[in-house]
Specification:
Length: 318
Amino acid sequence: MNSSLSGKKIVIFGGSGFIGSHLIARLCEEACQIHIVTRGFKKSKNFFFANDPGQVNFETVDSYNQENINSLIKGCDIVFNLVGILAESKNSKFHFVHTQIPQMIAKGVKENKVRNFIHVSALNVNKIKDSDYAKSKYAGELKVREIFPNTVIVRPGVVFGRGDNFTNFFSKMSKFSPVLPLIGTPKITLSKTNIPNIDFKKKVMFQPIYVGDLIHFLICISTKKNKTYDLTGPFIKSFDQIFDIILSHKKRKRIYFPIPFFFAKILAFFLEFLPNKPLTQDQVRLLMFDSVSNKGLRNLTDFVKTPSSLETIVKNYL
């Protein structure tokens, strides 16, 4: 239990998503009121558990605008912003979701004199210059910091756990596909004489963080002010090492097929025409920057003394 949350009214934007679902389940253990703001809540999702009747309330909004955001925030003590998308659609664009919505929430927080605002961004968005996702996320960070300087910004790397879009995606793919894609391998560069150099040792690297550890961290820092935290897990893994863990648990064998970034972009171009966009060109550009951070692990272990590894957790939910 976190006594600092006792009696608090907490508003969560984007609470019906993967991270939000786990955060709400954990907050239900506290003596606080939880108000979830979402555009896409599905009652069939069995993620939310309240200790007391009325502890959790849902606010479904058709669209985000400054007026309804201000009214939703009124009277609350802590605001979490978890709103985000991995790919654009006709009705959801990176700039609106990652920049304009956080800007409106920050204005609402300031207007209503809210004490604490936690804005969840993503690792390395301040360093990646050629991804629309990263640029919109970083622009959102700058806006909320400008409007409400006491904002706490959290930048997690790849997050895994029950309901994630990462390990679960490849686990489902391995059910029907005889091959799994090693995107970014090998690395192909051209020499000064235009002769291709091929590096088969180059791999995309991740430092995945368990959603339970991320939620524990968010609870611990929920009353802090004016901080920015990169956040990563305890071990660095490549695509093939992650596949090994998934397939070992599922007792499957699959072929790993190398796809250099150049060809991955071409593949993504065609996959973007599919309804659910399993891979986009912007996501390929993100993968060109390793999702790792030593500082991120140090930040996590300041609050989570024994972070969970992918190997120990994956068997509990895949």
